[in-house]
Structures are given as structure tokens and as C-alpha cells.
Write a structure and sequence with these properties.
Residues 9-69 form the HTH cro/C1-type domain. One of its GO terms (molecular function) is DNA binding. This is HTH cro/C1-type domain-containing protein. By secondary structure, this protein is mainly alpha-helical. The protein has one domain (4-72): 434 Repressor (Amino-terminal Domain) (Orthogonal Bundle). It has 5 helices and no strands. Helix 1 packs across helix 3 and helix 2 (20-30) crosses helix 3. The longest helix is centred in the N-terminal third of the chain and has 12 residues, at 4-15. The relative contact order is 0.20. The model has no long low-confidence stretch (mean pLDDT 88).
């Protein structure tokens, strides 16, 4: 089941005109331990929880306001 955070990641990725693979490649160029293509895809569809390091990377690159993230169930974020 797609999460609200996953939907936001997908929406921002689409707004940038990037595929999941292109997003993963861009993140890999810019960040240490960036999430993989597979992980990003799983975040978007809700089959994998977003860990804090990945959340920080994705929120920075995709301009996701961390105050928005507070709307999501933060207790479900992987530690």
C-alpha cells in the first residue's frame, strides 16, 4: 500500500521528469550511501520503510519540507 510519504516522493520525482533509475543515479552522484533504485521504488509503493538517512537525502534532493514529513506517522520510520 502506497504511503503518503511514498506518494510525495513519486510526485516530486515526476515533477523533475526523472525515472526511478535516473533519480537513483543522481542521488548516487551527490550523496554518500544514497538509496538504490530498488529502495526508492519500494518506498514509493510502500513496501519498504524509509530510514532516516534516506529520508534526509530524499528530502534534500526532492525539496520535501521536513515539516511536511511530520504529517506522516514518524513512528513507522525505520531507525
Amino acid at each position: 500500500m502506497e504511503s503518503k510519504l511514498g506518494a510525495t516522493i513519486r510526485q516530486r520525482r515526476h515533477a523533475l521528469g526523472l525515472t526511478v533509475g535516473e533519480l537513483a543515479a543522481e542521488l548516487d552522484k551527490r550523496y554518500y550511501q544514497a538509496p538504490s533504485k530498488s529502495s526508492i521504488s519500494r518506498y514509493e509503493v510502500g513496501t519498504k520503510q524509509v530510514g532516516l538517512p534516506a529520508l534526509m537525502i530524499l528530502s534534500d534532493f526532492l525539496a520535501i519540507n521536513l515539516d511536511e514529513v511530520r504529517k506522516y506517522d514518524i513512528s513507522k520510520l525505520k531507525k
